[in-house]
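Hello,

Our lab assistant flagged a job as stuck in the queue for most of the afternoon. It eventually completed. Since we weren't sure the result was trustworthy after the delay, we are filing this so someone can double-check. Below is the sequence as submitted and the structure that was eventually returned. Let us know if re-running is recommended.
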Amino acid sequence: MAILVTGAAGFIGHYTVKALLDRGEQVIGVDSLNDYYDPALKRARLDNIGENKAFTFVEGDIADGALAALPVTPTGIIHLAAQAGVRYSIDNPRAYAKANLTGHTEVLELARALQVKCVYASSSSVYGGNTKTPFSEEDRTDDPVSFYGATKKSDELLSQSYARLYGLPLVGLRFFTVYGPMGRPDMAYWMFTDKILKGEPIRIFNQGKMGRDFTYVDDIVTGVLAAYDRPLAVPDGMPTHRIYNLGNDNPEELMTLVTTIEDKLGLDAEKIFEPMQQGDVERTWADISRARSELGYDPKTGLEEGLDRFVHWFRDFYNR
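-- returned structure --
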């Protein structure tokens, strides 16, 4: 009895593995440890998981056959591996086609062969140019503003087809701006913290007139496990595929993020205000009523508490 977690050395993946191990599960983790950002951080996350006889790690690319050589046959899948990052996708679309399209198809094929449930990561980026807030799972998602968002929407469509064709139980989770200790260096909260500590200016886009539904990683992992554990809730006669928003239902202004980080560091940032970046959106906000009702999802961590934990970890990890 083993659960496969792809992207096990990733930000959300490593916390998910730890949570599964803490409750006594056997886990197979797969990760390519690619160099999109510092692989040393990914290895540090694996070290944070620690030695555990219930955890087996496989280094390999799911789009290049890594799933064909698993040491144990999984009884379920939590698929978190992906090429992340909106801005990187503008210049490197092939990386996203391989990881997010081919990789996702390989995971679906494994789920089909084993006839097991698969919970997978989607993204709030699928809402693209949507201006209605909060974002609901019922909203249209056919106007992506980034190639990354387009691949994540494609993953949902691929999953819908597999559910309809093969009756596979599939759950897609639209994550909203996940943050916390051991997070991703390409995220704004990380870059702001790093640059402020170095005495370097920070770039603030759209003149600071932006908002994000920042969601602390522990709350996200609770939602991931609930989606895996709970029976699939789909309307009668519909394919066995369900989508959920996992956010904080409390969008914060970008400048609130900046001032909170400044307060936690005890430093003022030099700020450079710039226009909106290509591929970005002005605001995200998750309607989480479906996840509350069907998954019991109830995020607990506010931005100030979450950033306090992140800044404490960051200064300790980098001895700064």
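-- support follow-up --
The delay was a queue issue, not a problem with the job. The result is valid. The CA atoms of residues 31 and 181 lie 19 Å apart. The two ends are 42 Å apart (CA to CA).
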